[in-house]
Amino acid sequence: MTTVAVEPRPQPFEPRSIKRADYLNISYGVRSWLLTLDHKRIAILYLISISIFFFVGGVFAAVVRLELATPKGDLLQSDTYNKMFTLHGVVMLFFFLIPAIPATLGNFLVPLMIGAKDLAFPRLNLMSWYVFMIAGMFGIYTMLAGGVDTGWTFYTPLSPKYANSQVMTAALAALIAGFSSILTGLNFMVTIHKMRAPGLTWFRLPLFVWSQYATSLIQILGTPVLAVTILLVAAERMLHIGIFDPALGGDPVLFQHLFWFYSHPAVYIMILPAMGVISELVTTFAKKVIFGYSFIAFSSVAIAVLGFLVWGHHMFVSSQSPYAGLIFSFLSMLVAIPSAIKVFNWTATLWRGSVSWDTPMLYAFGFIGLFTIGGLTGLFLACLATDVHLTHTYFVVAHFHYIMVGGAIMAYLGGLHYWWPKITGRMYPEFWAKFAAIIIFVGFNLTFFPQFVLGYQGMPRRYHEYPAEFQVLNVMSTAGASILAVGYIIPAVYFIWSMKYAKVAGRNPWGATGLEWSTTSPPPADNFEKTPIVSLPPYIYSKEEATVVP
Amino acid sequence: MNADFRLLPQQASTMAPRVDALFWFITAICIFFTILVAVLLLTFAIRYRRKTEDYFPKPVVGSKVLEAAWSIGPLALVMVIFFWGASIYFDMMRPPEDALEVYVTGKQWMWHLQHSGGQREINQLHIPLGKPVKLIMTSEDVLHDFYIPAFRVKMDTVPGKYTTLWFQATKLGTFDFYCALYCGTEHARMIGTVTVMKPREYEQWLTERADRSLALQGRQLFQKLQCVTCHHPEANNRAPILENLYGRMVELEGGRNVLADESYLRESILYPAAKVRAGWRPIMPSYVGQVDENDLVRLIAFLKGLKTGQTPARVEDFPAPAVNEKEAAKDKELPKPNEQPKATDKAKDK
């Protein structure tokens, strides 16, 4: 590795004395937003929409937890409860977690990070948002027209034949949202291939871009299978072609194969971008080049590829062949390796670094800890014998909330704090942000850790009433959820406050190295004054020559 | 509020301690790595915390040795978990030959269980201590899942086919079982209890509830539905004789072989054209709508025990199956043992 020049030093305060045209103030009015082709404005549109969906999904979760505070089904009727957890799942997955990081932070940052003026297809990008909103309208219609009570998994023959709720509109919402996801993935993939700044080779890309690339791969290859599955259900319902219904000669287990062929990789659509965010945070707040760049980059691709080969681990007790179970168990175990590589490389990056404790880094610490627990508890579910006992129980609920809430949402919030100065031009209030981060960490663990124990004790999922012996842990979980709710409300308040009243940020408040920090905050509409030319690998903080420990 | 609160679930089957040993092994690995990562993270974050803004630490780009160590180490551990888990799982999937058989049907939102002696239970299961028990399960409507946490076993029940679950209880007492796979409105109420009894008490329990055995009920159905008209040595080779069929490999049209298990028998009754035996014409009509899940269980119990020379006589007095809807409805109600002679009387009268 060669000796390298140091990036411009951080400029902690850069007064905005002259009103420069940036992407936010270049034009005004509702039309200028709803018809914008600027990836940064589209990212803001997504940010607002998914925040609303997050709030709605959160309310459903709160109702579920309140019902579970007592063993009797006293607050809600069983049907209402079933609708609540179904809508919580549908809204949080299809309308929050899947678009969360790619469509907001990814949309805003991918062109900035690769030195491009915009995504490859700006109109397609706007269309993705409109498609997403149409799906959202179907989702809202589903809720207003009586809800849906099949669980977000829509298992057959319950969903097409026996459930009397708004199954087809909910499925249609998921189908349409899928197209938005495919279009975003396609756009990112073409952009990353074709629009990198001169000198920005693949191995000079920030790791966030690598993770977005791996995510796009899954979005493009996996999501169509979800669409196919939903259309097959519709064909069976309307044309009586026997596909999943045994009475028509179909096989209900086939639905699970098709469903998880998309929905397991979909978990990686949620977590891979989060891993990308963490790679950025760890280097910036340790002021140090990432440890094992290519290992982290390729582990993202490895997770994306392996992710397509492990769907059957959801089906060890479904009557799938035990030999298929054997292969799926083996392949699922292998996912542990790229995950371990990432965790250890992030940790090693801190070694002899200059580690700050700013809010985004607190979220990164939280992510690494909680993702470690979430990932390791996946071993119980990849392992055949323990999965037989633990699948369909609260253990699974706890496990995937550690990955999706403890992992993906922690990283999303960390990333939002980190890039907030770039997005809005203003800092957030550090004290309140740290306070909220700690509240979220405590509330999260209190909510979900007891659920591991509940699952091991044998409490099944999706029960609105339960035997009294499970109450102590359920009360703990409900108490944790109320703390978690407070933790999520605080940032919503101070982020809105900060847009007008907080300290002006300057172009590079963290002294970070990425191209996005070399332009002004907020960036101008076309991102850069002139096209940047890249001559260095990413994350070069020190003038010293980089060393390789054996 | 904390009635019966216990941190760890009871261990009440031969499988439970084996699953738990693996569970705690994985837990130990989880605790070790979680603490390792947390300690490293906090140590580095405190020891190397930022003191001045203008210090730029010496860059370290990586280490092949470390990358290899933290790839191969975890790989070795997960392989141990994989093989250990697989060996227990395959024992779970292979019921012992001498297991007692209980037929289980899940339906929204109750469990219906039948012992081979014909004893029926709803949301309850009585079993003897120390004997392997095999559940042969299906569903009348949606997917359900039969789950006994204290035994560490569960299996989905799937409409249209049979799945099996086996266990051997090691503790007396009652243990909860649940429907573990979401099945609609009253999913949370589809629960029941397993009562593990001393073998002698179990025998007594069986005798008290004795009924015509499932196989006997199946034999009568076999005559009544006129299966015996064709599946009989004197039927001019209209259909194969079913003696000694269960558990054998059967050659199909097109050269494929299939094991004649419960699911095959069930499919051949409901959809005879699906798997036609080599050398036979597909002339059998479908029995969909003529037999319900309980009838299927009876017929299968009969066929499983049908040995050489045991095919019953052809009784021509039963009306053809297609026209007896009323009769079929009557049969759904539990026939009492003392009603049996009536059928024969009727036959004589005619």
Q: Helical segment tally of chain A?
A: 16
* Overall number of strands of chain B: 13
**CATH architecture designation of the largest domain in chain B:** Sandwich
According to CATH, the homologous superfamily of the largest domain in chain B is Cupredoxins -  blue copper proteins
CATH architecture of chain A: Up-down Bundle
In the residues of chain A, how many domains can be counted? 1
Poorly predicted regions of chain A are: 1-6
Q: Provide the CATH superfamily of chain A.
A: Cytochrome c oxidase-like, subunit I domain
How would you describe this structure to a colleague?
The complex is a heterodimer of chains A (550) and B (350). Chain A is mainly α. Chain A has 16 helices and 1 strand. The longest helix of chain A has 36 residues, at 78-113. The two termini of chain A are 15 Å apart. Chain B is an alpha+beta fold and 350 residues long. Chain B has 2 domains: 9-48 and 95-211, Sandwich (Immunoglobulin-like); 214-332, Cytochrome Bc1 Complex, Chain D, domain 2, CATH 1.10.760.10. Helices cover 36% and strands 20% of the residues of chain B. In chain B, helix 1 packs antiparallel against helix 2 (64-93), helix 4 crosses helix 7 and helix 6 packs across helix 7 (293-304). At the A-B interface, helix 3, helix 5, helix 8, helix 9 and helix 10 of A face helix 1, strand 1, helix 2, strand 8 and strand 10 of B. Strand 1 (547-548) of chain A pairs parallel with strand 1 (60-62) of chain B.
Q: What's the short story on this structure?
A:
Chain A is built from 16 helices and one strand. Chain A is mainly α.
Show the helix and strand layout:
The complex is a heterodimer of chains A (550) and B (350).
Chain A: H1 30-34, H2 39-67, H3 78-113, H4 122-144, H5 158-162, H6 167-194, H7 207-239, H8 252-286, H9 293-307, H10 322-334, H11 336-350, H12 359-382, H13 384-390, H14 394-424, H15 430-457, H16 471-501, E1 547-548
Helix pairs in contact in A: 2-3, 2-4, 2-16, 3-6, 3-7, 3-8, 3-14, 4-6, 6-7, 7-8, 7-9, 8-9, 8-11, 8-12, 8-14, 9-11, 11-12, 12-14, 12-15, 14-15, 15-16
Chain B: H1 15-47, E1 60-62, H2 64-93, E2 100-107, E3 110-115, E4 120-122, E5 124-128, E6 132-139, E7 144-148, E8 153-157, E9 163-168, E10 173-179, E11 191-197, H3 199-208, H4 214-224, H5 227-230, E12 249-251, E13 257-259, H6 262-270, H7 293-304, H8 325-332, H9 340-349
Parallel strand pairs in B: 2-6, 5-11
Antiparallel strand pairs in B: 2-3, 3-4, 6-9, 7-8, 7-10, 10-11, 12-13
